[in-house]
Each structure stands twice: as C-alpha cells, then as structure tokens.
Amino acid sequence: MKNKFLFLISVLAIASVLSACGSGTTQTLYPQIRSMYINGTGTTEITPDIAYINIGVHTEAPTAVVAVSMNNTRAQKVMDALKKFGIQSKDLRTSNFSIASLQKTNPETGEVTGTYYAVDNNIIVTVRDLPKLGNLLDNAIQAGANSINNVQFDVADNTAALKQARDKAMQNAIQQSQELADAAGIKLGAIQFINYSESIPMFAGNSYMDYGKGGGGGVRADISVPVNPGQMTITATVTITYALK
Fold this sequence. Notes:
Blueprint: E1 8-12, E2 16-21, E3 24-29, E4 33-46, E5 50-61, H1 64-84, E6 92-105, E7 112-127, H2 133-143, E8 147-154, H3 159-184, E9 188-199, E10 203-204, E11 208-210, E12 232-244
Antiparallel strand pairs: 1-4, 2-3, 4-12, 5-7, 5-8, 6-7, 8-10, 8-11, 9-12
Helix pairs in contact: 1-2
C-alpha cells in the first residue's frame, strides 16, 4: 500500500472580531499559527486463525408439521456431527429459523396447483481449528446440511498486529514530516494533535454453497471442500499536526 500524505503549511493571519455594544466596539486579536499536517500509514499481514460459518438445513413438505419435524431431525444430526468433530456448544448459535407457506404452480400454465411448506434452520458455527475446516464442512453436509453461507475468516487476538501497524504508521508519519520540513527549510515544533484510525477487514471465503434444497443432505460421501484462509491486512493511519518554529 502506498503511503498517502497531505502536507499543508498554513499561516493564519491576525483576525479581528468587531462587535457593537452601544456606541463602542470591541476588537479581539488571534495569534499567528503556523502548522503542518502529515498522514502516515502502516500495515501488518496476519494469518486468520478463526472462521465463522453459517450452516443451514432446508426442508420442504406438504404440511408445516412434517416440514418442521424433518428439519428438526436433520438439524440435530448436523449439530451432533459438529460436536463430535470438536465444536463446543458455546460455538454453535442459531441465527435463523423460519417457516414459509409456498404455492405450487403448473410450469406450463402458471396455475396454482397446491401449497407446501419450507422450513429453514441456520446455525452460525465458530471454528477455532482452521486446518480441520474442510473436513468439518464435509461432515456437516453428510449429516444433513444442504447450504453453507458466508464463510468468514478472522483473527481471535489482533492486539499485537494492531500495535505493529500503529507503530509503523507513526514512524512513517514522523519520517515524512522531517523529510518534508527539511525540504521546505522549516523547523518542526511540538506535536499538537494526533488522530488515529484502523482498518481490520473480515475476509470472506466461500460465500455460498448449496447442496440441494429439498433433498436429504449428505449428497456425496466423498465430497471435499477446499478452504484457504489466505492473509489479512491490518492497516493503521495516523494524522499528526506539528507546530512550526
């Protein structure tokens, strides 16, 4: 990432504020201010060590009772499979449960021929052992999951990476300030103000996989889900305001 900087030397002229009070006036003088503003950026590459996955079970049946019963059975099998794989209960959270009444139509005439019910149960799973993620997805699919949405990668503790990026940003800003001041033939005074911001992306991998909506899940026993978390870039930006001597 290229460092972007803004170099601004501003001289604010002496200003006066006049206010009338009866027949008299009052004049306020503001002192001259000379300052320089500089932006510095720093980045740190870090490997994700945690993933969040939305695993879903979708079932369809002629009645709501049957659709819910089918869904409950399959969703429980999925959660049992995840627990056997080492996922703790605290890392399993239901994110959505819905029942919808839908109409069947004749594909040729468009005429409504009946009604059926669709049930969705989605679970957000926190995976803390990324090397096992691909096999975990395989197990969930074989147990009955038929949709996997929004695989996101993150870092459980980014404290050290943030500090490193922040330190780099400060060093970058200070170095640029001195170089520009030397080039302009001016001297830096004390730092008057520091503004700081950071960018910590959550990287999304496989955004959506669908293994059959109304079917039975476990489509193939030999399916293999390739997963690569890649690298995350943490970026810190600082803006320093210097007084000029």
